[in-house]
């Protein structure tokens, strides 16, 4: 076997084993994706009811409180980035980081210092490499987030929000995550969690299912303010939880797609290499034949 | 007869949905009983047991943590951070969790919360066995 042919065969083998790996990852991502999507769906009823209850409490209570109204002089804002722990998911994490950079620039322009709250090893690595100050970070659960994880994140940012600005607290909380639209489309979205954009939220997210126009005259216990006050932390937790779930579904979808195109590319490469290997083999055989014929010719004429 | 449409929803799933005759839950102001025709109410719930008497079948007890109830025109929605049907609660495991939580100390709020959770779970389980709902 000629040297060239051997090189081709070796490359084919290596591409084949790569393809096996990417194919396996594709299958794993698909099955995880289905689970992630089910979790998104299972969390919907709670989100809807919570939004409805909050809208009701806000529309009945006259005082809106610090959680709902904007601050005049914004100094600092918390920016939560939700990225993945692992790579091999195409542009999934880098898209979020890029959007985060845009938000950081926008906030800085307005004279607001962004404080970075990072979820997922990818964003942590990015910020560490650039030696930026990280306010807080969480890793290790991005592919299967639980409500507990969301609660941990929520309590950290909520605490920063409740700290006076002079003592290092933040005036706003922004969230950057990947919204899952469908299998083919995932969009990076930026949302402000606090101060609450109640109207926007109830219109955009809830108008189909809920009838937001008129609420019955609820009897609030203990009082509308107390109910609202108790519900808003829930709202923050729920926002983050929903974002984590959507991001997890997006991550699996992105990984599936990335791995699918990797497998397809490997397949394509194998086909090209096989063709080249066959050509090399054929060239070798032709050469051998012509050598034999040439040799026999030389003997006969001698 | 009018009946209540009840749904009990936890953050990650729907726990119990169905028609019911009455509901008893615990709010910061005391116990609240809800029958069909009750005025609209939106109330916080303290961690405790919610008892539901369905239109058909045995009574249901649910251990609820960090929840609230919203009721209007005979639709009752109970939302909670965690909600567990008493029939899903493993008494032995809950007891063990309670013991463990007690040992973990009562200094930190988390440990206390764990004790509370375990106690509520046991209460919910007991509520069912006491009234002979498991037949």
TrEMBL record, chain A:
Gene3D superfamilies: 3.40.1380.10, ATP synthase, gamma subunit, helix hairpin domain. Its main location: membrane. Belongs to the ATPase gamma chain family. This is Unannotated protein. It is found in: Membrane. PROSITE patterns: ATPASE_GAMMA. Keywords: ATP synthesis, CF(1), Coiled coil, Hydrogen ion transport, Ion transport, Membrane, Transport. Residues 259-286 form a coiled coil. GO terms for cellular component: proton-transporting ATP synthase complex. InterPro entries: ATP_synth_F1_ATPase_gsu, ATP_synth_F1_gsu, ATP_synth_F1_gsu_CS. Pfam families: ATP-synt. Transmembrane segments: none annotated. One of its GO terms (molecular function) is proton-transporting ATP synthase activity, rotational mechanism. It is a peripheral membrane protein.
From TrEMBL, chain B:
The keyword Transport applies. InterPro entries: ATP_synth_F1_dsu/esu, ATP_synth_F1_dsu/esu_N, ATPsynth_dsu/esu_N. GO terms for molecular function: proton-transporting ATP synthase activity, rotational mechanism. PANTHER family: ATP SYNTHASE DELTA/EPSILON CHAIN, ATP SYNTHASE EPSILON CHAIN, CHLOROPLASTIC. Residues 4-83 form the ATP synthase F1 complex delta/epsilon subunit N-terminal domain. This is Unannotated protein. One of its GO terms (cellular component) is proton-transporting ATP synthase complex. It is found in: Membrane. Belongs to the ATPase epsilon chain family. Keywords: ATP synthesis, CF(1), Ion transport, Membrane, Transport. It comes from freshwater metagenome. Signal peptide: none annotated. It is a peripheral membrane protein.
């Amino acid at each position: 076997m000629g040297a060239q042919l051997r090189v081709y065969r070796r490359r084919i083998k290596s591409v084949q084993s790569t393809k096996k790996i990417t194919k396996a990852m594709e299958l794993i991502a698909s099955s995880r994706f289905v689970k992630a999507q089910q979790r998104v769906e299972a969390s919907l009823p709670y989100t809807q009811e919570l939004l409805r209850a909050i809208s009701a409490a806000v529309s009945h209570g006259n005082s809106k409180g610090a959680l709902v109204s904007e601050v005049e002089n914004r100094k600092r804002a918390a920016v939560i980035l939700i990225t993945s722990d692992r790579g091999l998911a195409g542009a999934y994490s880098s898209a979020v980081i890029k959007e985060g950079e845009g938000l950081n620039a926008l906030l800085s322009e307005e004279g607001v210092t962004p404080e970075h709250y990072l979820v997922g090893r990818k964003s942590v690595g990015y910020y560490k490499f650039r030696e930026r100050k990280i306010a807080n970070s969480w890793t290790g659960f991005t592919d299967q987030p639980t409500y507990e994880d969301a609660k941990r994140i929520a309590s950290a940012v909520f605490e920063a929000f409740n700290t006076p600005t002079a003592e290092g607290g933040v005036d706003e909380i922004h969230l950057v995550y990947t919204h899952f639209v469908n299998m083919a489309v995932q969009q990076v979205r930026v949302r402000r969690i606090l101060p609450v954009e109640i109207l926007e939220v109830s219109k955009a997210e809830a108008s189909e299912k809920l009838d937001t126009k008129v609420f019955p005259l609820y009897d609030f216990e203990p009082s509308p303010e107390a109910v609202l006050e108790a519900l808003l932390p829930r709202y923050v937790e729920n926002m983050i939880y929903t974002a984590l779930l959507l991001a997890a579904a997006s991550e699996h979808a992105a990984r599936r797609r990335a791995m699918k195109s990797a497998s397809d590319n490997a397949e394509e490469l194998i086909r090209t290499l096989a063709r080249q290997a066959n050509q090399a083999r054929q060239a070798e055989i032709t050469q051998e034949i012509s050598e034999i014929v040439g040799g026999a010719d030389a003997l006969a004429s001698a | 007869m009018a009946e209540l449409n009840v749904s009990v929803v936890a953050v990650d799933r729907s726990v119990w949905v169905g028609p019911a005759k009455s509901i008893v839950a615990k709010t910061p102001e005391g116990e609240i009983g809800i029958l069909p025709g009750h005025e609209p109410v939106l109330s916080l719930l303290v961690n405790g047991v919610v008892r539901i008497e369905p239109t058909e079948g045995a009574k249901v007890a649910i251990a609820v943590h960090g929840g609230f109830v919203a009721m209007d025109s005979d639709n009752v929605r109970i939302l909670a951070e965690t909600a567990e049907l008493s029939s899903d609660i493993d008494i032995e495991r809950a007891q063990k969790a309670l013991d463990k939580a007690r040992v973990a100390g009562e200094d930190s709020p988390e440990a206390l919360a764990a004790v509370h959770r375990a106690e509520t779970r046991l209460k919910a389980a007991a509520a069912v066995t006491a009234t002979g709902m498991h037949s």
